[in-house]
Amino acid sequence: MNRIAEPPRRLLMGNEAIAWGAIEAGVRVVAAYPGTPSTEVTEKILHHAGEYGIYAEWSVNEKVALETAIAASWTGARAMACMKQVGLNVASDPLMTLAYLGVKGGLVLIVADDPGPHSSQTEQDTRLFARFAKLPVLDPATPEEAREMVKAAFQLSEDLQVPVIVRPTTRTAHVCQDVAFAPPPKPALPLPPVRFERDPGWVILPALSAKRHRRLNAIQEEMRRWFLRHRLNGIATPCGEEATMSPAPPSLCDEATERMGNSGDLARATADLAIVAGGVAYNYVREGLDILGVSIPVYKVGAPVPLPAAPIVDFLRDKTAVLIVEEQEPVIEEQLTIEAYRTGLSLSIIGKHSGHLPREGEFNTDLLLPLLRRFVSDSIHCHGVPLGKGAPATSADRVTAKAQATPVTPETSATTETVASGAEMAVPPAPPLRTPILCAGCPHRNSFYAFIQAARSRDALFTGDIGCYTLGAMPPLGAADTIVCMGASVAMAAGFSQIEPDRPHIAFLGDSTFFHSGIPPLVNAVYQQARMTLVVLDNRTTAMTGHQPHPGLGRKGTGEVAPTIDIAAVARGCGVEWVRTVDPYDIAATVAAAKEALDYPGVSVLIARRDCVNLVRRSTPHRIDPDACRRCGICLRKFGCPALYEVKSLAHGEGQGGKTTVAIAREKCFGCGGCAQVCPWKAISPEVES
Amino acid sequence: MKTFNLIIAGVGGQGGVLASRVFAEAALAAGYKVRTSETIGMAQREGSVISHVRVGERLWGALIPDGAADVLVSLELAESLKGWPKLAPHGRAVINGRPIIPPAASLGLTRYDEAAIVDFLQQQGQRVHLIDATAAALEIGNAKTTNMVMLGVLSTLPGLPVTAEMLWQAAENLLPSRLRDINRLAFQAGRRLGSCAETAPLVS
Ligand code: SF4
Ligand code: SF4
């Protein structure tokens, strides 16, 4: 084959690009727990694991995943652990020690951040976690860059013997881009064996810990040098008229058109201004400058922690103001500010600390445009808080700066170039609120409904957890009084029961979450003699993240057959004496079981088992008999299946006769029969074939 | 070439992500650079979802700025309003007029004012095409093919970077073989709806 020809361009999602980068880097072990927006990395690797001789698994949680990867690395194999940002909280215990002990085979953590957040409990910035652990972070702006950075991360990890974090955010992880790429050739299998060699260096004892901590601090500077040598950070070429310029931001993979670290021939339209941008924010900056038609030198940061700040300070030497654009926390800004102060650089730093950019939410071009415009037209940097060694801002300056510092938010930036031109006249009506909700036919709805029937009159407390069933908190069910993190429902119900023993306490969590972090708090509840009910909403999958398997299902991530861990047996093994399984599609039986569970004077576990509707065929759609329906609205207002809707004078549905007030959207109905059981007038039944 | 920007709005589970993939693959096959961005995760459970597809030569972020979308495709009536701020003043919209009423509306927590929405869209004149894609999909036998009906309608608009053939080819490559026939019918039904709506002469 012609090895010089560029491979064909394929559409790759950021997470797929990361997976391919790892495969190209020769990763041998991948362990992960699913979590949006990181999940597809491991799915892709599992899909190709066999052909490339990779051992890949869905672990029960992120801590176990990282520990699995550590073991592999210490044999000398390249290893990767993947998770979302809150997953890193779970894995943080081994991570902190790993930072001290170091790695042998390259060890890369993929930790996907979710600014927004779109699908997370927090918006935490993994770069801060990395600073805490003193580990390097790479921050890709595009899928193409993510693929290159993963390969670089393995190299860095081995060069400096530290774990390396690659941190895509949602707009890298879930962005698709055309990438010139062909899958790497398949290796001869089996791969050469690797073996763990004993060494006191793998045993953390206080004396070693003290030594390794000094080493970790000492190699921070080496990390910075590595970043610069590998051109992860640098001055981007100006976005001028050169239409042929590769739109890909400068990165390892770029060609000679991107002359990193050479500012000699930058356009000088706004000679005393500069921008520093990190992660995906770089894209929005470049697009914003394109729209405004101005050219300001942009320093792109692909490796924000530990930041090589000295070259940026050099770059800023002749500037009067710099705009620092990064999503989430001011990680680049703070490191740069320290270096600027230390070296006596005096210029205005516009960013989060000046109050011009928010520390929450996602960025986009629209949000940045007004700020960029003001920055270019001089109105900010004259009034920004001056920063310099001998010249602290006067309080008057500060007041001015405060007044000027109108943070941009999605609301304040809503008008843009084109819309502001006035071509739009009519104002669109307000769209209805559409929050996520449990699917039509979701068995969790029935379980929540049954427990509401059995226990809400007794003022029971419902502790919720993380998964699709988090949506049980939505109206009309409102079946979650607390939600904290994976597994918290169990420990909190037990904890509440110690303090308010006169009240029923019911914890809800899913089957996958039970294995992730439900077992230790269940043991504790039994041991501490709590009085509570745990409802395991067992829909036979990890639904929210896209239906990954778990230990209860008898198959692995690769599809191979596996032993089945029986949730009921585990609960009994934890010392629970009252354990039952019920089919939530039978609401009456579920209510009866719920009542019994609540009457039990100790810890009871009820497993509500029924497959997620996305994994099984739908059955006969139901319909409402308009003559039998008494318009009580119970199905709609108490049960709340999204296939049910109120009929006003709609042009669709069954409302044409003017009688029915509730109807079922035939195309959405799963045929679970829940609403039929809930209707007190027996007005709902399966459609009869005509 | 100026960047071509497409917004696909809809409700989680309607297949908007697949539709954006199809368009992106077709544009890639046509030789363009492509960026897409999708909402995945919790919103997939009946929430509002918006996909961005950008096609051209000089692309940065995957998110389309406000007022910059050449075409808005909405798989649901009210969701078109969520995508509306993205639409350029000259931009065209293809909207499935079939409402999906969120339970929150039935509970009185939010208002779904179908008449006002239709009214607003009709005021936009020729550039908005309201069609009942769900009805077409149900006629073919599966409401899940609504996304393919909409792609068929989209394929009849002028000024796209891809032809109808390229779109269908991309769809065929992405769909599992057992679903190809029903989706082809849906795509063709969409093309008929599109040409009846007097949008433009058929592409190709
Ligand atoms: S995906 Fe499954 S578990 Fe999640 S809401 Fe839908 S039916 Fe329920
Ligand atoms: S049978 Fe009733 S509750 Fe079940 S999916 Fe259909 S409308 Fe919803």
Short overview:
The complex is a heterodimer of chains A (690) and B (204). Chain A has 690 residues and is α/β, with parallel strands linked by helices. Chain B has 204 residues and is an alpha/beta fold.
Key features of this structure:
heterodimer; A: 690 residues; alpha/beta; Rossmann fold; 4 domains; six-stranded parallel β-sheet; 23 strands; globular; B: 204 residues; Pyruvate-ferredoxin Oxidoreductase, domain 3; six-stranded mixed β-sheet; 8 helices; 6 strands; 21% strand; disordered C terminus; binds iron/sulfur cluster; electron transport (chain A); Indolepyruvate oxidoreductase subunit IorA (chain A); oxidoreductase (chain A)
Any chance you could write out the topology, listing elements then pairs?
The complex is a heterodimer of chains A (690) and B (204).
Chain A: E1 9-13, H1 14-24, E2 29-32, H2 39-52, E3 55-58, H3 62-75, E4 79-84, H4 85-101, E5 107-112, H5 126-133, E6 137-138, H6 143-160, E7 164-166, H7 170-173, E8 175-180, H8 206-218, H9 220-229, E9 233-235, E10 273-278, H10 281-292, E11 298-301, H11 310-316, E12 321-325, H12 331-342, E13 347-350, H13 365-376, E14 386-387, H14 395-404, H15 417-420, H16 443-455, E15 461-463, H17 488-499, E16 505-510, H18 511-527, E17 532-538, H19 567-573, E18 578-582, H20 587-599, E19 603-609, E20 622-624, H21 634-639, E21 644-646, E22 662-664, H22 674-678, E23 684-686
Chain B: E1 4-11, H1 16-29, E2 33-37, E3 48-56, E4 69-74, H2 79-83, E5 87-96, H3 103-106, H4 114-123, E6 128-131, H5 133-140, H6 146-154, H7 164-174, H8 180-196
Parallel strand pairs in B: 1-4, 4-5, 5-6
Antiparallel strand pairs in B: 1-3, 2-3
Helix pairs in contact in B: 1-7, 5-6, 5-8, 6-8
Bound molecules: iron/sulfur cluster (2 copies).
